[in-house]
Design brief:
Distance between the termini: 20 Å
CATH topology of the domain at 11-73: SH3 type barrels
Largest sheet: 6 strands, antiparallel
Shape: elongated
Helix content: under 10%
CATH architecture of the domain at 11-73: Roll
Radius of gyration: 17 Å
CATH class of the domain at 11-73: Mainly Beta
């Protein structure tokens, strides 16, 4: 299995789809399905039935986005960039291809 390019807490931008251009932070990564949950992106409206514990109604919920549709934001340039890997002091780290800044 290859190394994960996007991780929880990364700032990303959606590069394609209905939410193209929206920015957000990754809340959770699903490695088996290659998807990520990004706050404020790909919002679905769910209708909840009332029960003893909640009143029910219409709830907005974030849905996972495929990782191929996301690009990490370079911290130094504030623009989308690809992710590369290199070894520094015997440690494998991620770096931004656009500026060369280390992400980890």
């Amino acid at each position: 299995m290859c190394a994960q390019r996007l991780k929880k807490g990364d700032k990303v931008v959606v590069i394609t789809g209905k939410d193209k251009g929206l920015k957000g932070e990754i809340e959770r990564v699903f490695t088996k399905t290659n998807k990520a949950l990004v706050k404020g992106v790909n919002i679905a409206i769910c209708h909840i039935k009332p029960s003893q514990s909640n009143a029910g109604g219409i709830v907005k919920k974030d849905r996972p986005v495929d990782m191929s549709n996301l690009m990490i934001i370079d911290p130094s340039l504030d623009k989308p960039t690809r992710v590369g890997f290199k070894v520094i002091d015997g440690r494998k780290v991620r770096f931004a291809k656009r500026s060369g800044a280390v992400l980890d």
